[in-house]
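Usage

Read records sequentially. Each one opens with the input sequence:
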Amino acid sequence: MAHECLRLGARIVNDISGLENEQMRSVIAEAGASAVLMHMRGKPKTMQLDTNYDDVVRDVGEYLSRQAETARKAGIADVAVDPGLGFGKTAAQNFEILRRLDELADLGAPLLVGPSRKSFLGSLPSRLPPDERLEGTIAACCAAALKGARILRVHDVQACKRALEVIDRLQASE
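and closes with the structure output:
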């Protein structure tokens, strides 16, 4: 499918399997496309069965660094990395990643974070359903931006953009 999308004009492939598949790396490299590689344990159906980490931030960072280097060696020049919030991590681990996100911002690749409406935001005392997690999403996006995220994947683009304008202004005045 990635090959067909690239043939039709896509320029970025977002691979939730972390570019583990050699054929996927070849397809992206041959197209001269960019890639986002994400950390996830297992497959989407099994990812929540193994959430044991020695140190979730260090373990995720080591994986992303290793996979980004593998992608570059395969000929993919532009790579962004995504710690995979919600993918094989507990709610507490997702908050830990956000709290320590600056440790992942120095992996030599732009950092993408996708906290939008995720279940870890629903673990808070308010226990809100996905369609009522706008404020939590905005807070997570602002925290991520302050900790080094350069790309944010969100559902509520305008609301997040307006909040991030404040973050941009705060960072510009430093």
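Summary fields computed downstream for this record:
- The longest helix spans residues 56-73.
- The two ends are 44 Å apart (CA to CA).
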